[in-house]
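Table S2 (continued). Query chain:
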Amino acid sequence: MKHISIILLAWMSIFQAGGTLYACKNAQISLFSTAPIEDIAAKTSSGTSVYNPATGDLVFGVAITTFKFPKALMQEHFNSDYLESDKYPRATFKGKIQEHPDLTKDGTYPVTAVGELDVHNVKQTRTIPGTLTVNNGVLTLTSEFMVKCVDHHITIPRLVFHNIAESIKMNVSATYTAVK
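Corresponding output:
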């Protein structure tokens, strides 16, 4: 937890350019792989994020080892064989939300974040669609997008290629509180 707080403070100092910052320390992130032999799903509620609506800056981070799988063997292979979490412990996204929704008005706003997704130490420029919901001053950002394993040099051995999809569906949900 101390590590997460230090990361949030660093991000907040980088992105503080006037106005209110919003932070989330418990973003829900899930991944899902559907393949002919079996589906694979994992979840974490340990994602961290900072959003600066004045500039549109958005940063997400998650420790790879926080993803929990229904089967221990899946989790072991995910961390050791595929994501190599000992060498590449975090996945991050750093970018900007292109739209500037009015955060003083309740509503649901389609948004697009453009930035750099870093998974497995491979950075890729991405445009990720999402939805920003404002409800009584509380911000919730949700998104669903695909990540291709090959784009991040994640190798799937031929022996198990029927078990793991080439593209993994990601779902993200972060509820933000204002940080003064």
